């Protein structure tokens, strides 16, 4: 299903098991990327050890935390609206409530937040969550508290995250933090800092724990997972200074993926996000080698025009991207790919836009996330390029891309009809309590009658019908390979 992400719909309040003896109540909600949802689990875990249990009820919370997104202006506006809502609750119902802002907007706006939004007591950037207990003591004593220091080595590898709002089947495990790519439109390198990788042993230990608790699918997370590189800690950019021994024993993404898939053969692995410039063919070969690495890659392209890609500081041309995709299809013919695309980047012409449309035709993505360009203060694009594509042109180009993607998605989903495919059951279908919903390896949602199957089981489903984004089928038995 092609999705134009609507940040307003992404807020989610999260709850975990309660710990006896904890007397304070935390209401935490997350906006934006999967990394934010994963980070909120780390934050809840830290506060869980410091006297807080979570609540789903904003009105009786002692502490409200909102994990924020800065990726587009609209995302920030959504958070501002949420703060107004907290303000109303504090004024009318719960005067003792404290409010903290976490994540990318905290990092971007820093102390400006405390001045602009009087409701906010606490501002904490993505690398400073371990300081939360200290910061909360400050707040309890009546002072505003802030820590937005970005770190060279914080990966939270030693924190075992509590799983919030979990179905007990799927979990996120973060493997890298930050990003060094400096795409000219993107605020992430400023809000999440330089790229660093997490120690492989702590990743494996976290997956082992998930395995022991019955989880069946792990999504390895990073802004740019292909760039994963462990050589004893520290920033990726300092790898050049590593000793010969550190270099010889370093672990890259291919090795990490291979290790995960080998150690946990009955768990499925996915990863996100792949950046074309850092994606190696060895990763694709490792995927082809292991049944339990899903045949799906999120491979953002942003634009089909080489000129625009250059302006965006994406380190590849249209032709190089297409060559990579062709190679991927050659190695794993039934793989599915998804994209991120930005329309109306500064200087984008009608011809550049046509290049993006023709790229979609060539690649045939199963689905995608499409956005119109939103200028972000401080980025290279904001400093060097005028935001010169009129809003209505951005929107028109966006709707043309979304429409074409939808047509292609239907074709792509139809290719599964008649096939028997392995599906991991994840939840009850939203449409019917008689049906399960899960995904095939290619990440397409599959809905089928429950019969006697259970959540967390891998079943073979025969595909009988579909819409552009959902397959409808009937289970024909358990998967032999995964059970
Ligand atoms: N690490 C990922 C992207 C993270 S941001 C990568 O390798 O591409 C997620 C998506 O948001 C990006 O892929 C891009 O399509 C979109 N995005 C980022 N900055 C944007 C901006 N200023 N305006 C519109 N969309 C943007
Ligand atoms: Fe952003 Fe580009 Fe990194 S989109 S997160 S700077 S790969």
TrEMBL record:
It is an enzyme of class 2 (transferase). Binds 2 [4Fe-4S] clusters. One cluster is coordinated with 3 cysteines and an exchangeable S-adenosyl-L-methionine. GO terms for molecular function: tRNA-2-methylthio-N(6)-dimethylallyladenosine(37) synthase activity. Residues 165-411 form the Radical SAM core domain. It holds the Pfam family Radical_SAM. Its EC number is 2.8.4.3. Residues 24-141 form the MTTase N-terminal domain. [4Fe-4S] cluster 2 binds at residues 179, 183, 186. CDD domains: Radical_SAM (cd01335). Its cofactor is [4Fe-4S] cluster. PROSITE patterns: MTTASE_N, MTTASE_RADICAL, RADICAL_SAM, TRAM. It comes from the Bacteria. Residues 414-477 form the TRAM domain. [4Fe-4S] cluster 1 binds at residues 33, 69, 104. Keywords: 4Fe-4S, Cytoplasm, Iron, Iron-sulfur, Metal-binding, S-adenosyl-L-methionine, Transferase, tRNA processing. HAMAP family: tRNA_metthiotr_MiaB. Catalyzes the methylthiolation of N6-(dimethylallyl)adenosine (i(6)A), leading to the formation of 2-methylthio-N6-(dimethylallyl)adenosine (ms(2)i(6)A) at position 37 in tRNAs that read codons beginning with uridine. Belongs to the methylthiotransferase family. MiaB subfamily. Monomer. This is tRNA-2-methylthio-N(6)-dimethylallyladenosine synthase. The lineage of its organism: Bacteria, Pseudomonadati, Bacteroidota, Flavobacteriia, Flavobacteriales. The gene is miaB.
């Amino acid at each position: 299903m092609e999705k134009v992400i609507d940040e307003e719909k992404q807020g989610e309040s999260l709850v975990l098991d309660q710990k006896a003896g904890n007397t304070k109540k935390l209401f935490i909600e997350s906006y934006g990327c999967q990394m934010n949802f994963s980070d909120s689990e780390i934050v809840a875990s830290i506060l869980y050890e410091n006297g807080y249990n979570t609540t789903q009820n904003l009105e009786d919370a002692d502490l409200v935390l909102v994990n924020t997104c800065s990726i587009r202006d609209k995302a920030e506006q959504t958070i501002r609206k949420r703060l107004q809502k907290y303000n109303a609750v504090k004024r009318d119902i719960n005067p003792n409530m404290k409010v903290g802002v976490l994540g990318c907007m905290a990092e971007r706006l820093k102390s400006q937040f405390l001045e602009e939004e009087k409701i906010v007591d606490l501002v904490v950037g993505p690398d400073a969550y371990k300081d939360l207990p200290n910061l909360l003591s400050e707040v309890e004593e009546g002072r505003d508290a802030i820590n937005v220091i970005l770190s060279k080595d914080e990966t939270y590898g030693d924190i075992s995250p509590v799983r919030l709002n979990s179905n007990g089947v799927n979990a996120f495990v973060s493997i890298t933090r930050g990003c060094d790519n400096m795409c000219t439109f993107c605020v992430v390198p400023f809000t999440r800092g330089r790229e660093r990788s997490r120690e492989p042993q702590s990743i494996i230990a976290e997956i082992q724990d998930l395995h022991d608790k019955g989880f069946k699918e792990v999504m390895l997370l990073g802004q740019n997972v292909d760039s994963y590189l462990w050589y004893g800690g520290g920033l990726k950019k300092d790898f050049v200074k590593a000793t010969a021994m550190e270099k010889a024993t370093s672990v890259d993404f291919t090795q990490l993926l291979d290790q995960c898939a080998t150690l946990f053969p009955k768990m499925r692995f996915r990863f996100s996000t792949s950046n074309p410039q850092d994606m190696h063919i060895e990763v694709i070969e490792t995927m082809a080698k292991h049944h339990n690495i899903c045949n799906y890659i999120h491979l953002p392209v942003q634009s089909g025009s080489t000129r625009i890609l250059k302006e965006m500081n994406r380190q590849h041309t249209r032709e190089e991207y297409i060559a990579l995709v062709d190679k991927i299809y050659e190695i794993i013919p039934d793989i599915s790919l998804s994209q991120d695309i930005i329309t109306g980047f500064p200087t984008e012409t009608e011809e550049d836009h046509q290049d993006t449309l023709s790229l979609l035709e060539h690649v045939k993505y199963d689905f995608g996330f499409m956005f119109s360009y939103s200028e972000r203060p401080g980025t290279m694009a904001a400093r060097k390029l005028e935001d010169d594509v009129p809003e209505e042109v951005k929107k028109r180009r966006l709707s043309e891309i979304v429409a074409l993607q939808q047509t292609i998605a239907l074709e792509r989903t139809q290719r599964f009809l008649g096939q028997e495919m392995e599906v991991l059951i994840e939840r009850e279908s939203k449409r019917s309590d008689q049906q399960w919903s899960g995904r095939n390896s290619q990440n397409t949602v599959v809905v089928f009658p429950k019969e006697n199957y259970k959540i967390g089981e891998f079943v073979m489903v025969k595909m009988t019908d579909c819409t552009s984004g959902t397959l409808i089928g009937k289970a024909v038995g358990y998967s032999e390979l995964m059970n």
